[in-house]
Amino acid sequence: MHDFITLLKKRLEEINEEQERCKRCLMDTTADDIVFDEKGFCNYCTDFLFKLNSSNKKSGLSLESFVNKVKSDGKKKYDCIVGVSGGVDSSYALLKAKELGLRPLAVHMDNGWDSELASNNIKKLVEKLNVDLYTYVIDWKEYRELMQAFFDADVIDVELLYDNAMLAVCYQQADKYGIKYILAGTNTSTEGMKLPKNWNWFKYDKKNIRNLAKLRNVNLKTFPAIGTLDFVNFEFVKKIKWISFLDYLPKYSKSDALKILQEGFSYQSYPYKHYESVFTRLYQGFILPVKFGVDKRKNHLSTLVLTGEMRKEEAEQLLKEIPYPNEQELINDIEYFLERMEWSKGDFMEYLKRPEKSHSTYGSEIQLWERLSKIYKLVSGES
Description:
Blueprint: H1 2-17, H2 43-73, E1 80-83, H3 88-99, E2 104-110, H4 116-129, E3 133-137, H5 140-153, H6 160-177, E4 181-184, H7 188-191, H8 206-214, H9 228-237, E5 241-244, H10 254-265, H11 278-292, H12 297-306, H13 312-319, H14 327-341, H15 345-353, H16 366-380
Parallel strand pairs: 1-2, 2-3, 4-5
Helix pairs in contact: 3-10, 5-8, 11-14
């Protein structure tokens, strides 16, 4: 297993130390469309700071009115959905929803990769808050075959499967109970910096998922896929709104939120964002850098640097280390992954060495999304 560790360290050096980096954040030339101004500041942090300033101005004024609207529109048992992963952001969103007098239904999507830590965090939170929890469980054999199709295709965004399914489950539950608001832990403060297009893929691409599934003759029996037209139906016909809820708070600090969760709910934290899933942390901490030359920590840590929650020098030091607390934990995750996927070490190494292929190779509905987005902006007057 130590040959995997050696491979990771070599790739991290290539993608983190041999690139031109922004002088204000940690983004670098591994992002295909990065541009630097005369000060050496990149378009990613410039756009983020503008977005953050706009978000802060908006949220401080509208929290009370927004909460009152959710309450008045919610005539049944629940007035909102809160999707929970066990991470800090979604956990804190659920806590604040309850504290503000809302009646949330917590929704979780189990794809077979939940860590014990995440499961315990969710359990303690919903029990102490006295919140109902709905967990949608995807058949493991079906999900494993879908993952295998993505691996066979050599596309970058294997996590499209989880992200798309979670979107679908939240919208479906909102529709089932007549709920008009999905309060997400997504927020400008920790997630407002856009991801480079070459780092992931369009999340409502049901066509891409279905076409990749056909490579292994997988029938989507329990996988709750959502596409562009499904989104249009939920958002504009049924008027179900996906809300970045934490942006409505006067100020959201991830470190403060973590402290509150730890003190009030014995919450246990993770070393990096989205590491509550065993596969997600292996994907972000190993597969992405080794196979695709992407270290997502640059994006996540940049938001912490720009919001003053971490010094740039501290973040740069973290990039010199592997994205795991220690090498043994990475080895444990690789062994668990190989067992769950029924792969050998040779299978994994062969996959890592194959070149990347674009999602668009297999068909996509991203063009439809872009056309409808242009029409919406023209009609609504948005720039």
